[in-house]
């Protein structure tokens, strides 16, 4: 596995991240022994980024990872998230505000048995909290040494852009990454989030690269809608042509879209992870990528599509100008 830099930092991160949403035996997830096999296999393949959250498995994911990482914590880039409620009866036990960040961070550090988080994520946008407060609270967490880098997950592009601009103007810790769903059939990030990430130099951690198993052939076709079915059938056809599994093709397509993109792969067993890791070096033919692109019937919509169609407004010489 190869490595890239996290955003505009010097931190080296593997091209595929490991998701631990399903970890946490006490939360009804992957048993600890199997989670260890998954983590060991990922590490042996060169992977070094682990993604979790305070709410995964009701907290069991973080607790199990704390045990699994004992003695080798520093070899991994450990990321966790806050915003999800810690107590549904307390209005201040959720959200992006400073109080919840402080209490959530302490909870995660305790469960993970570590004194720092490599990448601390805002889990989801909280429209009630001013982005200025979130940026300053994240900066304070970095200054305390408990957090090294920060990112925004499941947040509108304009909010992340605002956070990055505020941080740059005021000398605060800027986001290094964004996290959002991305797969053959769900391509919304191409409209705003991916261009924004490119503009600010942010790593894109993409979750759901297999569309909840639909692109891996793990869901019956009759449970899929028309667009999902068409995409899944195209993925399966390409897989036969290139001698790979549908899951490997779906992952390869996601990785081929942009160098900023790092798919987050989750597995409920070491066998599933072995299959996915077997396709890390898979490079799809351009023709196959084009067919997969067309399978989702995706369009950028306004204003991107309109701007592309209106290119003649710049004159006939516009097509001969190379961008910087």
From TrEMBL:
Residues 16-296 form the NADP-dependent oxidoreductase domain. Gene3D superfamilies: NADP-dependent oxidoreductase domain (3.20.20.100). SUPFAM superfamilies: NAD(P)-linked oxidoreductase. Keywords: Oxidoreductase. CDD domains: AKR_AKR9A_9B. It comes from the Bacteria. PANTHER family: NAD(P)-LINKED OXIDOREDUCTASE SUPERFAMILY PROTEIN, NADH-SPECIFIC METHYLGLYOXAL REDUCTASE-RELATED. This is Aldo/keto reductase.
């Amino acid at each position: 596995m190869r490595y890239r830099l996290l955003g505009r930092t010097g931190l080296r991160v593997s091209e595929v991240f490991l998701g631990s949403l399903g970890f946490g035996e006490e939360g009804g997830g992957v048993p600890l022994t199997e989670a260890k096999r998954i983590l060991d296999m990922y590490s042996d393949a060169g992977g070094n980024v682990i993604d979790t959250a305070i709410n995964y498995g009701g907290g069991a994911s973080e607790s199990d990872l704390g045990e699994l990482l004992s003695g080798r914590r520093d070899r991994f880039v450990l990321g966790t998230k806050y915003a999800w409620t810690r107590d549904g009866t307390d209005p201040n036990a959720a959200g992006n505000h400073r109080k919840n960040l402080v209490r959530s961070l302490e909870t995660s550090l305790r469960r993970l048995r570590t004194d720092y988080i490599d990448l601390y994520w805002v889990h989801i946008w909280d429209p009630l909290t001013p982005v200025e407060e979130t940026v300053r609270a994240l900066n304070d967490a970095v200054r305390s040494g408990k957090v090294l880098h920060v990112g925004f997950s499941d947040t509108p592009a304009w909010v992340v852009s605002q956070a990055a601009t505020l941080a740059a103007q005021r000398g605060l810790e800027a986001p290094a990454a964004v996290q959002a769903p991305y797969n053959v059939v769900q391509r919304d990030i191409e409209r705003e989030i991916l261009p924004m990430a490119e503009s600010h130099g942010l790593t894109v951690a993409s979750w759901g690269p297999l569309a909840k198993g639909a692109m891996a052939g793990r869901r019956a076709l009759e449970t899929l809608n028309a667009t999902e079915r068409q995409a899944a059938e195209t993925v399966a056809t390409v897989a036969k042509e290139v001698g790979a599994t549908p899951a490997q093709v779906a992952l390869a397509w996601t990785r081929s879209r942009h160098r900023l993109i790092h798919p987050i792969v989750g597995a409920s067993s070491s066998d599933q992870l072995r299959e996915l890791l077997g396709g890390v070096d898979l490079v799809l033919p351009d023709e196959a990528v084009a067919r997969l692109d067309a399978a989702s019937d995706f369009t950028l919509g306004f204003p991107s599509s309109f701007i592309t169609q209106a290119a003649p407004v710049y004159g006939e010489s516009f097509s001969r100008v190379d961008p910087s």
